[in-house]
Task: inverse folding
């Protein structure tokens, strides 16, 4: 991957009309919420908004029409999600289901699973969470110990997941579990689709340092799920998860989470900013524009059926660095007290506090750099 | 890449490989690359110029290939020269990365190739991200120049963003490349300085960071916060 071949981003159909329609729809339907909610908006949970968005055809866009999807091209979906993020729309409730769980069920799931889950996902009504991390398995995901044993009645699950974003409002979890007794590392893992109202599941909140309840601990105590909960091939969980992470890492959310702050900075600076502020706006814009090119190119490569694992990691690495740097740069030039009530100040504070998580969630900086190094042939 | 561009690149590689001065570049007719076919030229687009300059930055960064190619356009502005420089920079950075990878895979210390050490791997990953960013910026800028018919004013947003992004990558790329090379990279004999010194020079030519940051920042201030997004999405994609 030494040279980043730029894939042309060329969605079918009238992209300008797609954007205009969505902007018109948002002008009417986007809730008038606090500016702070507009930052990091893929963590803002608003089921009413998700349902309305689904009814308007902007959720499950790439799923087949027989499952209630929009039969649209992945790059049309890309256009829609970048617009939603740039507008700071509260897309958190359906985000994971729409981005990765739906596509994964379509790719690896059984007919029964597709019929059961995809229509709800496309309506923006069925929410999913990602059950990967465990207390002993963080960066070292292959250390997963939660087990599922096959019995006559189904799979019996015991163990614990942690840091599970949205488990408390999700209907299903796509979990990586050890189905083969005595197996080690990335062998013997499988993916199970677990209905979270199954008896034996306990979900406990973990409050984050911003005071928000986004992630959770999820305990499985002799939880019985049907045989049909297995997704894809038994023992191939590792491979499937790797594909899922490709969907997760390169999207526009990796550089647009903090877009609200850039917008607020530009608006606060006015049309004739002082040179120090103009310079920072220029640098942030150059970075943001470049990230958009990288992200679009990676999306185009993904849409062409290739596996841009390394490119996706490049987008995540640079996007995380940009989004962590932005609030620091803004703080360095804008004079405001920590408890200032002005929009810009509140947004700044929220993003300074939220930003350490950017290079943890979805794979840590070190893990991501390791993937890139492997792509360079160094590992 | 189209077959015509593929051939053009093969020619450029062959001409530039051993070139020590500009004569072979002129003889090969690169001054006609951007001249329209009706005018007796090759009728290439900016994407073609970008591809040739990328190769020049990689293998002949000290030969004024950009000046020869731009001469075909007659009167060129400073943004045109900045745009050409971005392509050179992308190529030179790619070469610095390639040399670095090669070096850490061969040089052994502590009984292992340097590339087996995690600290070295992580440094090169950081460098590769910068190179990827500049490649993407350069290619998108070239696409915009083609969409605008080489009109540098219409493409000044992309040129500013791409030159600024490339400038900012120079420090990271040159310092990591030299760090992983150790002393050998600091010698006259070894090839690394043939790309790192030009990179240092290009950062200050045709607009340094402050120049383009001000230019871009002022453009964006006029657009306004939401206007920036509307403008970005109206310009491409
Ligand atoms: C906001 C947020 C949301 C999340 N949501 C989810 C979710 O929905 N589902 C889910 O499954 N998980 C989720 N996670 C968990 C996330 O995936 C993990 O935090 C991450 O994988 C790192 O694991 P860890 O926290 O155990 O850190 P550790 O693995 O303990 O790592 C700590 C530090 O050591 C470094 N490190 C570890 N091993 C190495 C090594 N070999 N070489 C060099 N450095 C190393 C890491 O890079 C990191 O910097 C979320 C995390 C956050 C912060």
Result:
């Amino acid at each position: 991957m030494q040279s980043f071949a730029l894939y042309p981003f060329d969605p079918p159909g009238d992209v300008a009309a797609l954007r205009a329609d969505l902007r018109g729809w948002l002008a009417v339907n986007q809730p008038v919420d606090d500016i702070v909610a507009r930052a990091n908006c893929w963590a803002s949970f608003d089921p009413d908004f998700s349902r309305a968005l689904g009814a308007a055809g902007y959720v499950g866009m790439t799923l087949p029409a027989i499952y209630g999807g929009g039969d649209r091209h992945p790059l049309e979906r890309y256009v829609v999600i970048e617009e939603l993020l740039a507008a700071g729309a509260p897309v958190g409730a359906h985000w994971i289901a729409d981005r990765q769980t739906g596509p994964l069920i379509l790719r690896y799931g059984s007919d029964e699973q597709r019929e059961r889950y995809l229509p709800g996902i496309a309506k923006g009504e069925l929410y999913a969470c990602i059950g990967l991390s465990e207390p002993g398995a963080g960066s070292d995901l292959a250390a997963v110990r939660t087990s599922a044993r096959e019995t006559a009645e189904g799979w019996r699950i015991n163990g614990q997941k942690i840091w599970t974003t949205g488990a408390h409002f999700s209907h299903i979890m796509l979990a990586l579990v050890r189905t083969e007794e005595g197996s080690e590392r990335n062998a013997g893992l499988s993916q199970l689709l677990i209905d979270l109202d199954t008896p034996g599941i306990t979900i406990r909140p973990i409050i984050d340092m911003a005071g928000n309840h986004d992630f959770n601990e999820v305990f499985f105590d002799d939880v019985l799920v049907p045989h049909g909960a297995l997704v894809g091939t038994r023992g191939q969980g590792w491979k499937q998860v790797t594909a899922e992470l490709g969907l997760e890492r390169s999207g526009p959310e990796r550089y647009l989470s903090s877009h609200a702050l850039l917008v607020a900075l530009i608006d606060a600076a006015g049309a004739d900013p002082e040179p120090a502020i103009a310079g920072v706006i220029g640098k942030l814009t150059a970075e943001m524009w470049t990230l958009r090119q990288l992200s679009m190119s990676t999306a185009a490569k993904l849409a062409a059926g290739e596996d841009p694992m390394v490119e996706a990691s490049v987008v995540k690495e640079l996007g995380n660095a940009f989004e962590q740097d932005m609030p620091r740069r803004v703080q360095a030039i804008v004079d405001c007290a920590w408890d200032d009530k002005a929009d810009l100040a509140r947004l700044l504070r929220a993003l300074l506090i939220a930003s350490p998580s950017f290079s943890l969630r979805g794979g840590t900086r070190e893990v991501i750099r390791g993937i890139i190094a492997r792509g360079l042939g160094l590992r | 890449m189209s077959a015509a561009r593929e051939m053009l690149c093969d020619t450029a590689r062959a001409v530039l490989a051993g070139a020590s001065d500009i004569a072979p570049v002129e003889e090969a007719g690169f001054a006609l690359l951007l001249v329209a076919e009706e005018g007796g030229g090759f009728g290439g687009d900016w994407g073609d110029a970008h591809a040739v300059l990328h190769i020049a930055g990689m293998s002949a960064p000290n030969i004024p290939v950009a000046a020869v190619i731009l001469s075909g356009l007659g009167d060129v502005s400073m943004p045109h020269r900045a745009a050409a420089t971005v392509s050179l920079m992308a190529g030179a950075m790619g070469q610095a990365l390639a040399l670095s990878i090669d070096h850490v895979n061969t040089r052994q210390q502590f009984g292992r190739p340097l590339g087996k050490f995690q600290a070295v791997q992580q440094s090169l990953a950081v460098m590769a991200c910068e190179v990827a960013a500049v490649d993407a910026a350069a290619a998108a800028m070239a696409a915009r120049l083609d969409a605008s018919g080489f009109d540098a004013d219409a493409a000044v947003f992309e040129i500013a963003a791409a030159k600024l992004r490339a400038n900012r990558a120079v420090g990271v790329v040159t310092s990591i490349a030299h760090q992983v090379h150790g002393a050998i990279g600091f010698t006259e004999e070894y090839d690394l300085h043939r790309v790192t010194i030009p990179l240092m020079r290009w950062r200050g030519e045709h607009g340094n960071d402050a120049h383009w940051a001000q230019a871009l920042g002022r453009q964006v201030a006029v657009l306004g916060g939401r206007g920036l997004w509307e403008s970005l999405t109206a310009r491409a994609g």
Remarks:
- The pocket of flavin-adenine dinucleotide is lined by residues A 129-133, 138-139, 163-165, 215, 357, 360-361, 364, 366-367 (CB under 6 Å).
